[in-house]
């Protein structure tokens, strides 16, 4: 059996604030094989982006942060590496597409310089070779007149073009793992498809694993092999994509899917919403963190936190190793009813 490219075990990221310790990521475990695409979904503030940055090694132990658990990439413990060793890892082994393209680009450096720096450092290309590589990358991500755009500054590009530059930077050295945090947020639907097709093609050609962090459940449904649903810093459900969307086991997963607009819904019909608000991560509840918003919650849910365990049926280990953290997981029949 092929060992996983990425193996995350009991990962915890805590931010120390004047009001106390905020557990942004609280005991997350997951693995990813070469060429596999994992979608991570959940509401804003659920810990998706912090998880991605911690996996990459951008968040480490310091004055205001504490990181524990294990992140192994290709057998290397990312958080045991020195800063210099981690920098060698970034670009060739793991790369990230950040959510905000404007803050990801240096305003005083030209677009071509952003792309050529990494390939010269990691791939040893000459200045001319690096420029050709930069222009080719801009062409791959659908930027018109790539030679001219390479000589421009970030503020001269539109938001969508800047997002494509950030994607090109991440792909410059053909990383083994790509963490894409809302990679198509600023793009129109046509360019979204081009970018997602490119990521899929590279994943197949290079056996590049991808973590796709997104609010767009439609994109995740059609572009991933597995889905992890995050809520309040924890994974509450993880299984193959078809199982999660066809038969969600966790009430939160069900509620997210129910909020997707449907073509067969009559005009002006109000979309279902999840009542209430996520818990305060400075003082998380003792039991299930979704209990206060869940219509299936019992006394047990408010006092005892459920473990993320394998569930029988469609989500059992015999069908892709599905996991759910719920004292009263939905059955296949119930899940079908509530998502219809």
Topology:
Elements: E1 6-17, E2 20-32, E3 37-41, H1 48-56, E4 65-73, E5 76-77, H2 83-89, E6 94-97, H3 101-104, H4 111-123, H5 127-140, H6 146-150, H7 159-171, E7 177-181, H8 189-206, E8 209-213, H9 217-223, E9 226-231, E10 234-240, H10 241-246, H11 251-258, H12 299-303, E11 309-310, E12 323-324, H13 332-339
Parallel strand pairs: 3-8, 3-9, 6-7, 7-8
Antiparallel strand pairs: 1-2, 1-4, 4-5, 9-10, 10-12, 11-12
Helix pairs in contact: 4-5, 5-7
CATH homologous superfamily placement of the largest domain = P-loop containing nucleotide triphosphate hydrolases
CATH architecture of the largest domain: 3-Layer(aba) Sandwich
Global geometry: globular
| Run of helices and strands | EEEHEEHEHHHHHEHEHEEHHHEEH
- In spatial order, strands of the major sheet run 6-7-8-3-9-10-12-11
Which CATH top level class of the largest domain fits? Alpha Beta
* Percent of residues in beta strands: 15-25%
What percent of the residues sit in helical stretches (DSSP H or I)? 25-40%
Radius of gyration: 21 Å
Q: Count of helices?
A: 13
Largest sheet: 8 strands, mixed
Distance between the termini: 38 Å
Beta-strand segment tally: 12
Given as residue ranges, the uncertain stretches (5+ residues, pLDDT < 50) are 313-320, 332-340
Structural class label:
alpha/beta
Domain tally: 2
- Fold-level CATH name of the largest domain: Rossmann fold
Mean pLDDT: 88
């Amino acid at each position: 059996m092929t060992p996983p490219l990425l193996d995350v075990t009991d990962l915890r990221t805590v931010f120390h604030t004047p009001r106390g310790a905020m557990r942004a990521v609280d005991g997350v475990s997951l693995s990813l094989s070469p060429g596999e695409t994992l979608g991570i979904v959940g509401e804003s503030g659920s810990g998706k982006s912090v998880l991605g940055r911690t996996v990459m090694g951008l968040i480490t132990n310091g004055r205001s942060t504490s990181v524990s658990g294990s992140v192994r990439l290709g057998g290397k413990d990312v958080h045991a590496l020195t800063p210099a060793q981690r920098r060698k890892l970034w670009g060739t082994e793991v790369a990230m597409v950040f959510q905000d393209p404007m803050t990801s680009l240096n305003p005083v450096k030209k677009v071509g310089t952003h792309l050529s720096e990494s390939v010269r450092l990691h791939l040893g290309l000459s200045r001319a070779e690096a420029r050709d590589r930069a222009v080719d990358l801009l062409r791959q991500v659908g930027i018109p007149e790539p030679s001219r755009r390479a000589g421009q500054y970030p503020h001269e590009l539109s938001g969508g073009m800047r997002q494509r530059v950030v994607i090109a930077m991440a792909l410059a050295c053909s990383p083994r793992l790509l963490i894409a945090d809302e990679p198509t947020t600023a793009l129109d639907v046509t360019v979204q498809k081009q970018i997602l097709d490119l990521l899929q093609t590279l994943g197949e050609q290079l056996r590049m694993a991808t973590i796709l962090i997104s609010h767009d459940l439609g994109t995740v449904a059609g572009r991933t092999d597995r889905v992890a649903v995050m809520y309040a810093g924890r994974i509450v459900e993880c299984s193959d994509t078809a199982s999660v969307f066809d038969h969600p086991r966790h009430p939160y997963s069900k509620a997210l899917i129910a909020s997707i607009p449907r073509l067969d819904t009559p005009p002006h019909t109000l979309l279902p919403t999840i009542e209430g608000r996520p818990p305060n991560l400075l003082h998380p509840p003792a039991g299930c963190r979704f209990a206060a918003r869940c219509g299936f919650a019992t006394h047990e849910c408010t006092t005892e936190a459920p473990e993320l365990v394998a569930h029988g049926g469609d989500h059992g280990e015999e069908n892709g190793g599905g996991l759910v953290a719920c004292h009263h997981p939905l059955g296949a029949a119930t899940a079908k009813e509530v998502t219809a």
